[in-house]
Structures are given as structure tokens and as C-alpha cells.
């Protein structure tokens, strides 16, 4: 364990806790509109102030943690899933399978990822599910390359030959032996991916095609904060801070894991 | 749709004011003094630049193709129509000096101004009007304005400065359609208007001459010293494109922009500082449009008029005006703005009354049997989705407020915000919606045939809620076939009454336009239609001028 | 070498096919039509007018015909004309590309100038307080949401202190300035956007550099060099640095798409007319030819970037033979 992992984990766990216990922690109903208390500054009653419909910002931030983390985690889950499958197929079978998949990876890598996400999200309907799917579908290439490289080096090892000799199926070899052994670098890439996905969600919200209201996400609170900037600093400051700290946390954690892997 | 406050510059005879005041004095003295005053009053300084900040960028400067507000704003500075609206929103001559309508309303004769020059020095004549008309009805051209002009049966050039327009049947919105900007024949006759360099370097007759356009940055215009209503005082007009609202506001705060529109929040809460008081002047007046929630009338739940009326009682429009517009606007009761002569002032808006709403819903057969707070009828829950377009914060907030109020009477409303293009083609055109939250921008003529007539319900047409009422159908036809103002007033007042009673839309609000201008600009006057009609008279005293050249 | 480049260029052809098919699919799975923007939502626009517009654009043809048409024009480097303003797509893109590439070029230089030394010094002082502090510092840059940082800086530096312009690329009086003043003017406008994008990009390069350097420092020849009694300075700057720097070239090649694509947000915020904004605007108005054009040109630039990176990598590293 190094210090990067520790500090990263503390941040990550803190926000995971917020997300998990949101209903217990939020002082108000995040959807409760109060026209007479629009954009009131932070006070004892509303610790982080209220938004442009008079809703309690703290409660919205706490529930927003759920959405933002969910988007990050599921998007990355999808990308890891696709990346691991395609990467291990390419690495294990080699030849034309490998060539085909890797050319596909090359093609996908040629696109500015954010453009691709932007195009698809804007052209489909924005919404939590679409956002998660599209971030996932456009960001698996790194994982695929990692897995392929690991498997290429693993599959020539003795224990794989032994497995083959006793007649284990390809599926069993890939899922029981190759993938688990290649998991380290994937874990790093997944951790960093969560952070990236959270940033992408906030960028999409900025462009108005992120998570849809009335569901609060950090990204759409931030983008509302932008439009009321100057009248309500808290609407810009707090969501920005939350995104910042969380992304930092995941990055530190990922770097920590990477360093540990390098050492062993 | 965002609307620019600064629309079309108009003419104003400033001298009349000074002469009026002095009519009791001895004639000769009057004359001398008036001459003196004339000098004093008109001694506004020429020069300086106005920097207008806008989120949108014009798409084309070919006026008959321009359908977005940015293109309209710039075209309005460069071109003129035959007619225009004055300070009090009356039609008045622009390129036409005068006009006459025959008694049966079928013929209009326009007498064109003589001696008007295009910016390139060619004279403006009837040929240009004919050319513009022919392009408007040319099916090969992507103009959205053909609708009003295909009603014209015959177009005749009588002489170089007279044209005659003949309609097949009386068509009262016809006159106002001639506010359409006129294009130069000599430059465009052999051009394909869909694909011409003119769209990025237009030549008009208007108060400002096109100079340059840096895509994504700015458009620069310079004043036309030979403008037929007099040389505009402000020497240069720069239209800066700043795509983000927050950045635009920061630029205003840094005085990088002189003129822009504010959001209600910016108007009320962000421009109260000493800095803004000292350096800027804010305006507010009703915009030409209203926001509504339209129901899909094919939906059996909404086909029942009592349900629609119940929703009208359940939603507090004053609350929306307070919360969303911060009181900068008014509740709407119908499809006209309150200033219009077509607006029926006898209609009293329903009070916010959830009990009455409950009662009406009960009469319609809706009640909460399982106690989950949502009403049921025949085993189905009252749950629907309202869709609105992305990029409009006010509509988003309005939807969220309505959502809460409807929950209060046991109706579950979901919100879906959809990007504009998809919104129109997949949902509106195909009638795939329960309810829509939208706004209509209004033209000054109250003709609403396209929105309410029962024949206009095909895919892509504008009666997408599927409203059908034979009396309204008849009245709408009557309204566009007569020129008599009293007659039309009666017709539209009745239409207003029926629409409010039947509630095919939940009429929500008429927002205010909220322009802000730098204080150094003098001579800005607010008319019924807002500011900007006398733009060519705006000026900056020499010692306050900021941009020198 | 020339043979290698030639072979690589040939192998780009199937990739390009892949690219065009993906772009075409992405666009056409989408609902919405370009005609919606043209006509907006105007009761004065008749249905016939909309149909007329659709026909003019060729949108009534079947999809594969549209693709074939497009491909045929592509072969002649004709990207067609924009649906929005009828201007050639190439012209619209070539107006925007210099701005985006220019800004990114400056910020890449900045990133290298700052990021490489940070990476090296961190690696040399591995696991010290300095190393940890630098790690946190560069990740602060990465983790700050662009919007947030930009707005805060614009408000502070542009409005409150008034020392730099808030947004845009040039002053209104730009045309009348002398050459030197012009350069000054543009530089002043670029300070904030370049800072924001460079700060965000610092983490990538410096971390990569650090990892490389750490690995290089563990290599046998470094141990040998140390054993020979060379000074630490000599070991690091003469032997280790060169080898650790090489892979950076590849990273630069790979980061081309990010350079073009990552700019949407700050171009909108700073109202800079670059590729990012062009792309966003064309997506929003369903301007198919421009969307296709930007994606294809972006992809081609990436391919060329990768090739260039591989070639220069081989040129500087004698161990690598291009076959």
C-alpha cells in the first residue's frame, strides 16, 4: 500500500458512502421546489444554499453523487467488458481474428473520442442510459490493447500448455487463466476511466446533452451554476469542487495501483 | 426561440417635436428659433461603434432564406422591406412611400420611394421588387416564406416606381407580408440563391453597409452615409458571436459588449451593482411570443375538456411568472400578446384552485382508489410525459414547477428534454407526444390559420395538437378575408374566448424582452414594440465615444 | 524507409474505409433531419417548403445511394457543401483548423516544457515528498473541470482584475494594429485558453515521462554507468534521458485526435472559432457533410500523426528498424 492508494481510497470511499446513503444524508427532498427561496446563499437552513427553483443544493449534490458515480462506473464497466472480450479474443486466437479486431481498434482510435460521443449522444436522445452506453462503447480500445498484450505474453507460458494438454476448452483457458492474470493493468485503466467518464458527463451537461432534469447530477448542477454565475457563486463552486475532488481521488488511486504493479 | 431585441431600424421625424413646443410664439421668431433648435436637437455626434453580443450566428444573409433571429437581425440592418412597423406597431412605408388597397381588398398598389440607391450605387426600382417576389414563389429556392406569397395571383410592374399586387381572394395578412426585405435584381438575377456568395456579402438599401464577416467571431457593418432616412449616427455596428451565455455576460461586465439581451435572473440579480447602474441601461417590454403546454388531443385523457380545464386550475401561472421569469413577464390567457388589438381583455384568467381541479377530474372519472397519490380511471394511472426542447432554461424550470403542481392533484408528469432537431422531426411531426412545452413567436398580424385550423394537422404542419372546432375554423377564414379592423377584432376576440374555454393549450406566460445597452448610447426610445425601431437615431456624444477611427 | 512509408500509406486505405463507414453509420442512425434547422419552428413555413428542402438535399434517396454519392465525391476530395450555409465543407474546415491546431501546438509545447522536467525530476526523486507533491499537482490540473477553471479565471483575470481579454481571439481594432501589436493582441487573448488546456494536459505527459524514466533508471546499462563512477548528472542526462524521451514521440502521435476533439468545451467558453465549435454546431444542426468532413479529416490527421511519430521514432532510435 502506498500513500497514493490510501489518499485515493479515502476520497473514493467518502463519495461512495455519500452515494450509498444519500437518502439518509440529504437534509431535504432534492426535488422540493420553493419559489420563495430561489438562490438563497448558504445558511444554517440550507448549508450549501438553494438552486434556481429554491431546491436545497446540499440534498441535490448528495443525490447527484449517485448519478455521477453511477455514470462513471457503469460506463467503465461496459468499456472494460467490451475491451476484455475483444482483447482476449485477439490475443488468444491471433491470425485473422487478431488482425480484424486490431484494425477495428485502429479505426476507433482515429476518431476524436469526444466528437464521437458528442455526435451519438446528440443524435440519439440524451439520458443516463444512453450516456453510459456511449461512453463505454467509445472507450474500450485501451483495455483491449492491454489485455491483448498481456495475453500474448501469457499464452506461451507452461501452465497454459499444461491446461491445453489436459483438454481444457479455450473458453476455460481464457476466462480462468488468462484474463485473471491480465487483470492488473486493466484495473488501473478502469480506475482512471471512471474519472474520465465523470468529466465527460460534466462536459456533456455543459453542452446541454447530459443527464436530464429533474434528476440531479454534478454535471447538470454545474452547468446550471454557470448560467446563474454572479448571482449565486455556490451553484458553480460546490459541484465543481465535488467533481474535482472525486476525479482527483480516482486518479490518485489508479496511479497508486499502477506503481504497485510496476514494483512487483 | 431566442429573439433579438434590436430589430429593424425605423424612421422618426425628430424635428416635429421641437416645432410643436413653439407654436405660440411669433411666426418669424418661431422660424428662427426653430431653425436654431433644429440645429441644437439634431446636433447629435456621428461616430463610435456599437458592439452587439449574441449567442447565435447568422446562417445566411440572403433575406428571403433567413429564418433564424441572428440572420433576421443583420438582414434588418442591411435591407429594407416595402413596409415596416413603426413605434406603435402600425404599418408604415419603408421602400414604399405609400400604398393603396382596393375596396374589395384584392389589389394593393405600392408607390416606391424615388432616388433610393443600393449600397453599390445602382438605383432601386420596381424590378427589384418583382425579382424578390419571383424568387419567393420559386419552388427551387429554400425559402420558408413562400406561404404568404403564393396567395398572390398576379404581380404587375406598372412603372419604374409603382407595383401592383393582386390576390385571388381577400387576404388580410398579405399587407404585412410585404415587410419582407427586398433584394437587388442586378446582382442576383443570374445567381443560384441557394448557393451564392451574396449570402456572406450582401448588398442592400438599408442604414448599414456590410463590411466583413469572420465566421464564428463577428460581423462588421458600417453606416450608410446616403441612407434615404438620413445618415445613422453610430458609425459602425459589430455583431459579436459569443456562444456561451455565461461568457457573454462576463464580456458585458468587462464592457467588451455594448448591447445584449439578459436572462430574467441576470436582469434582476446580476445587474443591480453600482457598476451596471452607472454604465448600462436596461429595458423590459413584452416580447412577441408566449409559452404554452399543448396536449395531444388524440389522447383519450386529454380529449376530455374537463381534464384540460382541471390542469388549468391546478397550475399556478403566477407562480411560474414569479419563479421562472422573476416577474418579468405576465401570465398568458390566449394566443396573442396583451398589447395586441386582437387580445380579448374580457377574459379573466382562472385562479389557482386545486380543489376545483380535483372536482373537475372527479367529474371526468379520475380518482385515487389505491391511495398512492396518483389518480386512476378504468385501471390506468394518470401519468404522462411532457417533452420540451433542449437549451431553454426557462422551459426546463417551468416544466419542473408544473410537475410539482400536477403531483398535488394526483397527476404524475414526467419531463423529457430533447435536442431541437429530433424534437421536431421525431416527436412533433409524428405526433409522438402526450404533451409538449413550447413557445410560439408571433408575427404582428394575428392570423393563426396555420396553428388552429383543423385542416393543418398533417405531418409537419403546425396544428400538431390536433385541435378541431368548426366555429374556430370559420372564424379563422373570416379573419384573414377581411381588412376591416373592427370586424377582425370581433373575430379574434371570439377565437381567443373559445380557445381559453376549451384549453387545447395550457397558456402559460408572455415573457419580457430584456435588452441592455451601454449608457453612452443616447436617443434610445422605447415604443410598444420595444427599442431598436429608431436605431439610426441612436448616438454617442463626442466626449463619450469609445471607439475612434 | 521510403518503402515502409509507402506500405503504411497503402495500409491506410482500408482504415479510411472503416472510418467513413463508421461516420456514415453514426450520423444516419440518428433521428432528426437537417431541414428542421433550416425552417426552425415557424408557423409561416409550410409543409411543402420543408419537403422541397429535403428533396434539394437529396435526403429522399435510399441510404446506400447517399453513401455511394458521398464516397464518389470523397474520391475527388470533394466534401460537398454545408447544409446550413451552402459553403464548401473544405472551406469551412480550413477556416477553423489553423486556430485549433495553433492553440494546441502552443499548449503542447508548454506541456512538454513543463511536463517533461516534472516527470524526470519526479522519477529521479522517486517516492520523495517532491515526487508526491508533483503527482498531486499535475492531477489537480487534470481533475479540474475545464468549464469551472475557465469561468473562474475569466471572472478573476478578465473581469475583476481586467488584465486580459475575457474571450475571443482578436480585439475589435485588430485590423488597424501593427504586426507586433497584432501578435501581442492574439497572445493576450490566448493566455487563458492555452493555460487551461495545458494545465489539463500536464498530467498525461509528466506521468508518462516519470514512468519511463523510472524504468530506464532500473536498466542494466544505467547500473553499469553508475558502476563506472559517472556522476549522477551524467548518468541521468546523458544516458537515461535520451532513452526515456523516445516514447514521448509516440504519445504525441497518438494524442492528435484528442487535440482536435478535446477543444469543444473551451472553444465554446472562450468563444474561439475552432474545429470543436464547428463540429458541435454542425452536430446540432444535422449538417451531415460537415460532420462527416470533420470526422474524416480528423481521422486522416490522426493516421498521419501516427505515421509521423513512428517514422521519427525510428529516425532517432537506431535499435528500431522499420520493416
Descriptive notes:
- The complex is a heterotrimer of chains A (264), B (549) and C (323).
- Chain A is mostly helical and 264 residues long.
- Chain A has a single domain (54-263), classed as MetI-like (MetI-like fold, Orthogonal Bundle).
- Helix content of chain A is 74%, strand content 0%.
- Chain A has helices at 3-20, 22-25, 57-93, 95-110, 113-123, 128-137, 141-154, 158-165, 170-181, 183-206, 218-227, 233-263.
- The longest helix of chain A is centred in the first third of the chain and has 37 residues, at 57-93.
- Chain A is elongated, with a radius of gyration of 22 Å.
- Chain B has 549 residues and is of the alpha+beta class.
- In chain B, 31% of the residues lie in helices and 21% in strands.
- Residues 1-26 of chain B have low confidence and may be disordered.
- Chain C has 2 domains: 17-75, no CATH class; 97-273, MetI-like (MetI-like fold).
- Chain C is built from 14 helices and no strands.
- In chain C, α5 runs antiparallel to α6 (129-143), α7 (146-160) runs antiparallel to α8 and α9 (220-227) packs antiparallel against α10.
- Chain C starts with a helix and ends in a 7-residue tail after the last helix.
- Residues 36-46 of chain C have low confidence and may be disordered.
- Chains in contact: A-B, A-C, B-C.
- Chains B and C meet through α5, β10, α8, α16 and β20 of B and α2, α3, α5, α7 and α13 of C.
List the main descriptive attributes of the protein structure presented here.
heterotrimer; A: 264 residues; mainly alpha; MetI-like fold; 74% helix; C: 323 residues; 2 domains; 14 helices
The first-to-last residue Cα distance of chain A is 12 Å
Query: Which CATH class of chain A is shown?
Result: Mainly Alpha
The succession of helices and strands of chain C, N to C, reads: HHHHHHHHHHHHHH
The poorly predicted ranges of chain C are 36-46
